[in-house]
Write a structure and sequence with these properties.
119 residues, mainly beta, six-stranded antiparallel β-sheet, 2 helices
């Protein structure tokens, strides 16, 4: 599935530090999507996610990289300043910011007070 970024509705930032690190979005059918800041590629990757996988992540059962890899998307879209391109997600797993950490291991100052309220 190719993600139409312009049609996604921003719900909240699940992680933010002077800008979105992990953002939660929905489409018109209330399907969940995430956008993750990439460490060295100067862009943001967009990918689909189920509510159950997202709950596992928020409950500290998955690392951020595992969340990304469990996405329903085989191809993911990267948006940079100039353009959007599709990539195979396996090739980007090392680029996910905080990829080696669980949500519970990330500073609470970067998270909304109750991220579950947005699900």
């Amino acid at each position: 599935m190719i993600i139409e970024i312009a049609k996604l509705i921003r719900v909240t930032d699940l992680l933010n530090s002077e800008g979105t690190i992990l953002g939660l979005l929905k489409d018109k059918n209330n399907n969940f999507f995430l956008c993750s800041y990439l460490k060295s590629m100067n862009g943001t990757v967009f990918y689909s996610v189920t509510k159950n996988i997202l709950l596992d992540y928020l409950n500290g059962k998955l690392k951020t990289e595992e969340l990304f890899l469990k996405s329903d998307s085989f191809l993911v879209t990267i948006k940079s300043d100039a353009e959007s391109k599709s990539y195979i997600k396996e090739n980007l797993k090392q680029e996910i910011h905080f990829g080696d950490l669980r949500y519970s291991e990330i500073s609470s100052s970067m998270k909304p007070e109750n991220p579950f309220q947005f699900l």
